[in-house]
Amino acid sequence: MNNLYFDNAATSWPKPESVYSSAExxxxxxxxxxxxxxxxxxLEADRLLYKTRxxxxxxxxxxxxxxxxxxxxxxxxxxxxxxxxxxxxxxxIHTAMDHNSVLRPLGRLCKEGKITTxxxxxxxxxxxxxxxxxxxxxxxxxxLVINHASNVTGTLAPLKDMIITAHKHNAFxxxxxxxxxxxxxxxxxDFDIDMLAFTGHKGLLGPTGTGGLYVKxxxxxxxxxxxxxxxxxxxxxxxxxxxxxxxAGTLNSTGLAGMLKGIEYIxxxxxxNIKEHESNLRKYxxxxxxxxxxxxxxxxxxxxxxxxxxxxxxSNTDSGEIGYILESSYNVLCRTGLHCAPLAHKAxxxxxxxxIRFSPGIFTSKEDVDYLVKSMKEILKLVQ
Length: 384
Hints:
39% of the residues lie in helices and 15% in strands. By secondary structure, it is of the alpha/beta class. The chain has two domains: 4-14 and 270-383, Aspartate Aminotransferase, domain 1; 17-269, Type I PLP-dependent aspartate aminotransferase-like (Major domain) (Aspartate Aminotransferase, domain 2, 3-Layer(aba) Sandwich), CATH 3.40.640. It has a seven-stranded mixed beta sheet, with helices on both faces. It has a four-stranded antiparallel beta sheet with strand order 9-10-13-12, with helices on one face. Helix 1 (17-29) packs antiparallel against helix 8 (253-269) and helix 2 packs across helix 8.
């Protein structure tokens, strides 16, 4: 049988057919360098980028599309936000469920003596300690980083409560929406989000090499890169206006053409329908795996609010070995290990071995889950 894909938390697959055809069409017919010339192919590329920016704004309820800067991925967007905003002496709060795309930039700035950080402890289900958070702010605290959903457990952070707390202490908030953009409703205005980092190749169903950063009006970030923008070329300094301020060099218009179609597919199918499908899949997968003897499950229980992720271990068995058996004997693709989130595994008690992570997606069926569970049942008999 064909490979069964349970690694959508890393990158979504398959993509809608319109994503593939749009990316190809851009390379063939709208190949101009956006903003760099006045000929028809460049103008077509310009229109494509503007339409994509508008689609992102509509998806997240962003009033001004110009406040969205495109990036390589969520990691690139997070680096842009962190290194563009933080100054020497600032204090940053983040959670134990954060990805290395947050932990490593903060770690470097700490080692260089520029900032200090505080980590919010999380429960064994992945929920942040809100009482600890409220007491963690200092006069020099300028930023709270929130992982909207853990890439290890799927645990959803209580965004509104955490944002209200941060704003009460006069700190900005940066949201890492790598695991939720495209699969859950995110309303920038309603949530009062200051900065939002997202990737295009996961829930937005686009190609790799795409993503972006929303920056609230009034927040001015130092650019991570400087160079050509196609505008104000007479200046020897980078433009101040958004989005050019954070977009140096030629953008990945081919990838963004695909991401646009991914967003359009999401809007046509409906975010509510996608969330319901993935919630039902996760509940079914969680409950089915829970019935198997010798398997340990992590994160929220079935039916609790979560992204579409289930992490598991088998007692006294290396998770990497299970992943190898799943692919080599059953054609099931998943991810094993630490998932670039070491503090999360320390909170769960799964460090340093990590877990087996199953992440269905919008094209995963109940029958696919049945096959996965049947495979795990046979593997358990083999290894125990």
